[in-house]
Design brief:
globular, Ferritin, 9 helices, 2% strand, mainly alpha
């Protein structure tokens, strides 16, 4: 799937989603949908937490209020799709992605806020890129839904990046480049499980190794 508005997202990311991840995601739609729902809920929660923590930042209040509302709507829509398909909720562990990014966040302000905004931009950009990567392999209903979400995630990416620059006292290019490398490594290296933001599923890596032996 290609569209002009997706190119800035792809240019922003340091690595493309692997075919192995796409294959694993398509093969396990219940896990994909459930973790997608969890990600939407977490994204809303993260935005709300920042609304309370940075109550004096006017632009942040305006943009993250809208973002949180949209993420909750997406969460509701994914849950409706799950119910329609008879997919019930079950406990699902989080991937290493978020913690892998957050462990590098600076502890002093405004650097702490700036890093959180940059991470938010990468999370939303990766979500957008993965919707596009997987959509063409899904049934018509899911393909329409994931294609519909693309513009929202691309818009959220630009909001977060704009907020990072807004609240930084210096250019953010160096920090963006740093987190680009961190994010690309998390996405490109083997992972023990398939999640919406996981790396290359280990089962796929093992299968490829046996095939080449």
């Amino acid at each position: 799937m290609s569209s002009d508005f997706l190119q800035p997202v792809r240019d922003f990311l340091g690595a493309a989603t692997t075919d192995a991840w796409v294959q694993a995601a398509v093969a396990d739609l219940p896990t994909l949908l459930q973790d997608h729902a969890n990600c939407e809920k977490k994204a809303a929660s993260t935005a709300l937490n920042m609304l309370f923590r940075y109550n004096d930042r006017e632009q942040l209040q305006t943009e993250l209020t809208q973002l949180a509302r949209e993420e909750l709507l997406h969460y509701e829509q994914v849950r409706e799709l799950m119910a329609k398909r008879g997919i019930s909720y079950r406990p699902l562990s989080a991937s290493r992605y978020a913690n892998g990014m957050r462990q590098h966040v600076r502890t002093y302000e405004p650097a702490h806020l700036v890093d959180l905004m940059i991470i938010g931009a990468f999370v939303e950009a990766r979500s957008c890129e993965r919707f596009a990567a997987v959509a063409e392999y899904l049934d018509d209903e899911l393909k329409r839904f994931y294609s519909f979400l693309l513009r929202s995630e691309a818009r959220h990416f630009t909001h977060y990046l704009g907020l990072a620059q807004c609240y930084s006292s210096e250019p953010i290019a160096e920090r963006v480049a740093f987190f680009r490398e961190v994010e690309a490594e998390l996405i490109s290296t083997p992972d023990v499980e398939m999640r919406f933001h996981s790396g290359v599923p280990q089962i796929q890596v093992q299968s490829q190794t046996r095939a080449q032996a």
